[in-house]
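Handout, page 2. Input:
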Amino acid sequence: MVALRGKGIVAASQYVQNGEVAIQRDAPSGAYQIAASAIEMMGEDFPDPMYMVDIAQHQGEYRLLEINGFSYSIFYGCDLEAIVHAAHEAALHEWKAVQL
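Output:
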């Protein structure tokens, strides 16, 4: 899932189901819930304005797998238009923050 600091999840996809590659736009609601909890716990602490939250299902339960940087991640079936819009929003916010 792609997350934007201060906004949360902006795009998501699933890329494995039952051990097989199954790229889909969107993700199960349980995965969203775990990702949202991780984002809330992390708050503003991730150094980049955009980042990836990877969730895995293990023994029927969704769990946080890892949090990765945005710029070196693969988006699989994510909504690219939503990602570009969020990246634009983040870049504009960063640019305005450094203006005098």
